[in-house]
Specification:
The complex is a heterodimer. By secondary structure, chain A is an alpha+beta fold. Chain A folds into three domains: 160 residues, Aldehyde Oxidoreductase, domain 4, CATH 3.30.365; 185 residues, Alpha-Beta Complex (Aldehyde Oxidoreductase, domain 3), CATH 3.90.1170.50; 325 residues, 2-Layer Sandwich (Aldehyde Oxidoreductase, domain 4). Chain A has 19 helices and 30 strands. In chain A, the strands form eight sheets. Chain A has a seven-stranded mixed beta sheet with strand order 3-7-1-14-11-12-13, sandwiched between helices. A five-stranded mixed beta sheet of chain A has the order 9-17-16-15-10. A four-stranded mixed beta sheet of chain A has the order 18-26-27-30, sandwiched between helices. Chain A is globular and about 90 Å long. Chain A starts with 11 loop residues before the first helix and ends with a helix. By secondary structure, chain B is of the alpha+beta class. Chain B folds into three domains: 47 residues, 2-Layer Sandwich (Uridine Diphospho-n-acetylenolpyruvylglucosamine Reductase, domain 2), CATH 3.30.43; 115 residues, Uridine Diphospho-n-acetylenolpyruvylglucosamine Reductase, domain 3 (2-Layer Sandwich), CATH 3.30.465.10; 105 residues, Enolase-like, domain 1, CATH 3.30.390. In chain B, 35% of the residues lie in helices and 26% in strands. Chain B has a five-stranded antiparallel beta sheet with strand order 4-5-10-6-7. A four-stranded antiparallel beta sheet of chain B has the order 11-12-13-14. Chain B has a three-stranded parallel beta sheet with strand order 1-3-2, covered by helices on one side. In chain B, helix 10 runs antiparallel to helix 11. The chains are: A alpha+beta, B alpha+beta. The interface between A and B is medium-sized, with 28 and 24 residues.
Chain lengths: 785, 282
């Protein structure tokens, strides 16, 4: 939709006139936080210091599985400059049944043990064992070396398949190694496969993944003059204040969490990181305390993306119709539950992909192991099965001699169709359109100019929910206040990860109230001062807080228009609000400035503030292992198409072209949505090709960024983004969420392109040069036989 | 974290006196691109860091007679922008753009790359091909050690605790064609899985003389002498190249590690040789 551009030189009346359509929404503009970041003036969590501040360090387990026989902190405590050395016995509530930031009751199937410091049994290498606070970082580090821990190493279990066997080593104290199991049942897969002309079977393995944000985990905590524990922290979830309160044994209203601008989150700051440690140490010492993880510590100690083993069997008829899909997914939960059940549920719902398949059988299970714990990572259980189902459909196309676009168009979901879980799509489903647009944009496969290089094209579609699981009964709130000078204060408890979460809300307020962005001040992420808006996770912020903000802004807008109605003698319905004026576009003489309306409201005692709440659709907590019915409010659909060049001598894969096409519903800020689509594609390009957090028998073999390889700027092609604006989203102005969906489908698109180029199907990610090379060797040997 | 003393000598002689006094208690630092990560990873224990980065005597690139002499403090970026290196030691110049990343190239020195003695060190491979000599000084004397003898093992060199690398020298080599190829897991900021530095003198397609240096394919960077011997005097016909690939694969003695298996690295040795020879012929 074309929109009017307002020239600042226009007269006020003209300006009011022109602003018939959106003036802010749908434009390309830098986020409000873009310039400070570009200039380096943004203050991040580790930049804060306080008078008298102590520095904290964490002692971490050297073993992945061991009994702690004794901990001697005497020497560390005696070191001059050390103010506290804490172990599990110093934690008022060291073991919680945690809801992981969720405020509603979701039942025991979706809770898990949150343990602050290792207690008797160590479960993973890098588990926090003791905390130190000292006058300097150097003293704190020295103190760590002086803490003596007697361990008795235990055998441990490091493979989820092993962990599920009867008699396997128990990772925890009493609980079973099984974290969760879910199923999907639709039709009759036996009959479906019997009717299939072609059946493809493969087992896929995807690795642990790190978030690799620029900013490692960090925070500063202090006890203020009212004896409230303040924690200023880089987090995606300020609402962990409730858990922290339980840990330290204080009422929830005595813990205040203040979120900073994040240097990236990607799900890795969805769980508690430094908060409990800081609260315990500041409470113990009475001094402000800072804790920032080193990069190595971050790689070692925070949650990873779940590795999955995925056994898929997919059947189709000769004309390319999918008739049956059977999938068995096993995920490695690592040492603690965290968000594993939720993520496994996402995988279960996503397992068959955005396809019409009459017969579907999905079984998923997650097991505890003595590996690093696994939890949220951009894509949250949707990306792993996407790798499998999009590889499978490509293999079917290959066997059937069908094009990758054709087979997808033949089978993909359309409006009115349902998922295998019986979730019906009443709204536009853009899978076919996105696939076609992306594939066309890729164009024909060029001739290789190098005898060692083969070029291939790959396509993959994807679906991912935005907004949380509907049984979590999600809500968000926003407060807006009009100041007497016509400026605006917005308070909303969003955490801004760099995805434009705060900026977007300002843009919505600006659009609705006709007030320029420069006159809008937003306060975010403070549990004491901002209405709680929930977590910045699950691609929910635009959907949830955007709607809450829209609702609130429109309530205030209505109050202003009602007042203007009386002042102008016009009907409120005929009036428009734009460029700090209220005007009747039919009769431009009927106009007042916004400030005049605000003054009149103030004089008459009309409230110039409002706090609105938006509730997502609510459903019941699933009580059966078989998942059926709506578990999410809506999905975002998209597609990646890539061109790769594969070096036949080395197996090296170079991504030369990358097209991302998504139905974004409505782009609130075009520049920002492009950024999300580009960032998402690059994020999981690394997942497909280079990023491999290698853990052997519980020991991390990729302890730094010189082993865990993320793409550099020269490894990344220009990402061409194509936006479909269907307006079909549940967010403001018909927007859908894109943050997480944007990284879906790129990995299988790359695997499919590799297969197109050199004819080998890589089923274990990442597709390192070595893996691709050996696969080619193996295939050559087979073809010789 | 361990405690470190820090000394900044103002002249080479001051530095040598310090090293003489401290012995193995000293650790020479210049660009710090290896030392700082090692300190963070606790691979370096308490010692005195002797910062030689102020020593003007160790800087600069000169030609003396038929020798090119490069001060040990010369950064990789300076090599990359040196016409002398580009024309007289082309294979070293070719490394410039493939070495780490622009930030590291601004700090990392050629002397440091030698002292680090990593089997995968990209700066060392071309010096081997150039048959360079490491100029090493102590209070008592100055000596020259051929690079091949200087490198004694992974992270180990012939440098004595009281010695300082002051430079590296090699004979001008304009007649030979040079190729450097590095294979890493990404296009920048990558540690070589395998690298090759090739210098070859050709008469048509016949090899008159050839020097082949390999990185990350043995406990130290090595010369592939058997492959060189085989190729010398032969035309670069396809069957000759194939045979040379077989030979170089027997010469490569790499390890398996988290980045790649031994078998794959051995395979890469052959690929890199073939490509280097092709590039030299082109």
């Amino acid at each position: 939709m074309e929109t009017t551009v307002v020239d600042e030189g226009l007269t006020k009346i003209d300006a009011c006139h022109k602003a018939q359509e959106t003036t802010i929404i749908g434009k390309r503009r830098p986020k409000i936080d873009a310039w400070p970041k570009a200039k380096g003036t943004t203050i991040y969590a580790d930049d804060f210091t306080m008078p008298g501040m102590l520095h904290a360090k964490v002692l971490r387990s050297k073993y992945p599985a061991a009994m702690i026989l004794a901990i001697d902190t005497g020497k560390a405590e005696a070191l001059p400059g050390v103010h506290a050395v804490l172990t599990c016995k110093d934690v008022p509530n060291n073991n919680l049944r945690a809801k992981f930031g969720q405020s509603t009751d979701v039942g025991s199937n979706f809770e898990g043990l949150y343990r602050v410091l290792a207690e008797s049994k160590v479960r993973f290498m890098g588990e926090a064992v003791a905390l130190v606070a000292a006058e300097s970082l150097k003293i704190a580090e020295e103190a760590l070396d002086l803490i003596k821990v007697d361990y008795e190493p235990l055998p441990g279990v490091f493979d989820p398949i092993e962990a599920l066997k009867p008699g396997a080593y128990r990772v925890g104290e009493s609980e079973s190694n099984v974290v969760s199991r879910f199923k999907v049942r639709k039709g009759d897969v036996e009959a479906g496969f019997a009717a299939a002309d072609v059946i493809v079977e493969n087992t896929y393995r995807v690795p642990f993944g790190d978030h690799a944000y620029l900013e490692p985990e960090s925070g500063v905590a202090w006890v203020d003059e009212d004896e409230v524990i303040n924690i200023r922290v880089s987090t995606q979830v300020i609402e962990h204040f409730r858990t922290v309160a339980e840990v330290v044994g204080l009422p929830q209203n005595r813990i205040r969490v203040i979120g900073t601008w994040l240097g990236g989150g990607f799900g890795g700051k969805e769980d508690i990181t430094v908060e409990s440690f800081l609260a315990l140490l500041t409470l113990k010492t009475g001094r402000p305390v800072k804790l920032t993880y080193t990069r190595e510590e971050s790689l070692l100690a925070h949650g990873k993306r779940h590795p999955y083993i995925m056994k898929y069997k997919t059947g189709a008829t000769r004309d390319g119709r999918l008739v049956a899909l059977e999938a068995e997914l096993i995920s490695d939960a690592g040492a603690y539950t965290y968000l594993t059940p939720w993520i496994l549920l996402y995988s279960t719902v996503n397992a068959a992909g955005p396809y019409n398949i009459p017969n579907v059988k999905v079984d998923t299970v997650s097991a505890l192991t003595n590996n690093p714990f696994t939890s949220a990572n951009r894509g949250f259980g949707a990306v792993q099965p996407n790798v499998a189902y999009e590889s499978q459909i490509d293999e079917l196309a290959r066997v059937l001699g069908m094009g990758p676009l054709t087979i997808r168009q033949k089978n993909c979901l359309r409006q009115g169709d349902s998922l295998a879980t019986n979730f019906k799509f009443d709204r536009y489903v853009a899978v076919a359109e996105a696939a076609e647009k992306a594939w066309q944009a890729l164009g024909p496969v060029p001739e290789s100019q190098d005898k060692n290089i083969r070029i291939g094209h790959g396509l993959a579609v994807g679906m991912m929910s935005y907004g949380r699981l509907t049984f979590l009964h999600d809500s968000s709130r926003c407060f807006i206040k009009l100041e007497l000078d016509g400026s605006v204060v917005v308070r909303c408890g969003v955490q801004d990860l760099g995805g434009g979460q705060a900026s977007t809300l300002c843009e919505i307020v600006s659009e609705e109230l006709g007030i320029p962005l420069e006159k809008i001040k937003i306060y975010i992420a403070d549990t004491a001062l901002t209405p709680l808006a929930g977590t910045t996770t699950a691609t929910r912020m635009l959907y949830m807080s955007g709607n809450a903000t829209l609702k609130t802004a429109r309530e205030l807008k209505q109050r202003l228009l009602t007042k203007a109605e009386a002042m102008l003698g016009a009907r409120a319905a005929d009036l428009q609000i734009a460029n700090e004026c209220i005007v009747n576009p039919v009769d431009p003489e009927q106009q007042i400035t916004l400030k005049e309306a605000i003054d009149a409201c103030a004089t008459d005692g009309i409230e110039l503030f409002y706090e609105g709440q938006f509730n997502a659709p609510f459903t019941e907590v699933p009580t059966s292992e078989i998942i059926s019915g709506p578990t999410f409010a809506d999905f975002t659909f998209g597609c990646h198409a890539v061109e790769v060049a594969v070096d036949v001598d080395t197996g090296a894969v170079d991504v030369r072209k990358l097209i991302a096409c998504f139905d974004v519903g409505k782009a609130i800020n075009v520049l920002n949505v492009e950024g999300q689509l580009e960032g998402g594609a690059i994020y999981n390009m690394g997942y497909a090709l280079t990023e491999d957090l290698i853990v052997e028998k519980g020991y991390l073999k990729t302890p730094s960024f010189s082993e865990y390889l993320i793409a550099t700027s020269v490894d990344v092609p220009d990402v061409e983004t194509i936006m479909i604006e269907s307006g079909a989203g549940l967010g403001p102005y018909g927007a859908k969420g894109v943050g997480e969906p944007a990284d879906n489908s790129i990995a299988p698109a790359i695997l499919n392109a590799i297969c197109d180029a050199v004819g080998v199907r890589i089923t274990t990610m990442p597709a390192t040069p070595e893996r691709v090379f050996w696969a080619m060797q193996e295939q050559q040997q087979k073809s010789r036989q | 974290m361990s405690s470190f003393a820090y000394a900044v000598p103002g002249t080479k002689d001051e530095a040598l006196a310090l090293l003489n006094e401290l012995g193995s208690g000293a650790r020479i630092v210049a660009g710090c691109t290896n030392v700082l990560p090692d300190i963070r990873a606790k691979k370096i224990a308490a010692c005195t860091l002797v910062d030689i980065s102020k020593l003007a005597e160790l800087k600069g690139i000169d030609v003396r007679g038929d020798r090119v002499i490069i001060g040990s403090l010369t950064t990789i970026n300076e090599l990359l922008h040196s016409d002398l290196v580009a024309s007289h030691g082309q294979v070293l110049w070719q490394v410039g753009r493939r070495f780490a990343d622009p930030l590291t190239r601004n700090r990392a020195t050629i002397g440091g790359n030698l002292a680090n003695a990593s089997p995968a060190g990209d700066g060392v491979v071309p010096l081997l091909a150039l048959e360079a000599k490491v100029i090493v000084a102590s209070l008592a004397a100055e000596r020259e050690i051929p690079v091949a003898e200087f490198l004694t093992g992974p992270g180990r060199s012939a440098l004595q605790p009281n010695e300082l690398i002051v430079g590296v020298s090699f004979t001008k080599t304009t007649a030979m064609r040079s190729v450097f190829i590095k294979f890493g897991m990404r296009k920048s900021m990558a540690i070589s899985l395998a690298s090759i530095g090739l210098m070859v003198g050709l008469d048509g397609d016949r090899v008159e003389q050839v020097r082949i240096a390999l990185g990350a394919l043995a406990p130290t960077a090595i010369r592939a002498r058997q492959t060189e011997d085989y190729l010398t005097g032969k035309p670069l016909a396809p069957e000759v190249v194939t045979r040379a690939q077989e030979i170089i694969r027997t010469e490569a003695k790499p390890i398996s590690d988290v980045r790649a298996s031994r078998e794959y690295r051995v395979h890469l040795a052959g690929v890199l040789l073939k490509r280097a020879l092709e590039a030299a012929l082109a």
